Amino acid sequence: MPLLTVNRLNKSFGGLVALNNFNLNVEEGELVGLIGPNGAGKTTVFNLLTGLYQPTSGSIVFEGRDLKGKPPHLITKMGIARTFQNIRLFGNLSVLDNVKIAYQSVLNYGLIPAFFRVPPYSRRESEIEKEALGLLEIMHLERYAAEKAKNLPYGEQRRLEIARALATKPRLLLLDEPAAGMNPQETQELLSLIRWIRERFGLTIILIEHDMSLVMGLCERVLVLNYGSLIAEGTPQEIQQNPKVIEAYLGVDEGVTAWEE
Ligand SMILES: Nc1ncnc2c1ncn2[C@@H]1O[C@H](COP(=O)(O)OP(=O)(O)OP(=O)(O)O)[C@@H](O)[C@H]1O
């Protein structure tokens, strides 16, 4: 059974069809790329998978459980985590606290221990701190632990977002343009890091990305959306040569540049 099964998923906003009969099966351990020109519907897929949007029709089944009507926090607890295209951190909190909050978001202490700050709350608190510091180390962010998140350079903020997503202990990780705003060297480092965390945490990953060096270097399978419809699916090599894909990107300045990278 696939880890994730998306069947005939549709999302409309008034008269605009953002996603049209989208199908996707993702097997455990896969690293799948989702690409397409601006406005193609990529982030809408993530918003539907994480419960931020409810589909107009269609179904999403994760580990055999239907996600219909489930709110985002429950979906996080079920094992789907994401990062955002526009970074969403608690800018005025420390880097460490940003990760600790993500850990706490999926824990149930029970109200009484949490209120009186007695075990198991206090015991879990020190465990969380240890685990959060460990994650910061993995993401090469430990030296920033006490720094306010908003003061981090852009590339580091993106890595902190990934650390926060990992803190919720996902099985499926959704990365929305993780290389946006990074220079080529940072992008290459990110590529190695994503490969490494996938192995280390046994993750299945879906990646939205405009940077083709990252998509081609990382993904085993790539899906291409255009105007809400899936126009191609295949290996990175197949996708690069697909006439429909080339046509979809032609005339879109960003797309052409992206392919040439
Ligand atoms: N909440 C919303 N309300 C109205 N329209 C929306 C909403 N969210 C997305 N859309 C529209 O749906 C379409 C798909 O948007 P989406 O953000 O999924 O595209 P995308 O492929 O992620 O684009 P980009 O690469 O620019 O991020 C766009 O036309 C967008 O304007």
UniProtKB/TrEMBL annotation:
Domain of life: Bacteria
Gene3D superfamilies according to UniProt: P-loop containing nucleotide triphosphate hydrolases
InterPro entries from the UniProt entry: AAA+_ATPase, ABC_AA/LPS_Transport, ABC_transporter-like_ATP-bd, BCA_ABC_TP_C, P-loop_NTPase
All copies of domain ABC transporter, residue ranges: 4-252
Pfam families in the cross-refs: ABC_tran, BCA_ABC_TP_C
A molecular-function term among this protein's GO annotations: L-phenylalanine transmembrane transporter activity
Keywords attached to this entry: ATP-binding, Nucleotide-binding, Transport
Record's GO cellular component terms: plasma membrane
GO biological process: D-alanine transmembrane transport; L-alanine transport; L-isoleucine import across plasma membrane; L-valine import across plasma membrane
PROSITE patterns: ABC_TRANSPORTER_2
Protein name: High-affinity branched-chain amino acid transport ATP-binding protein LivG
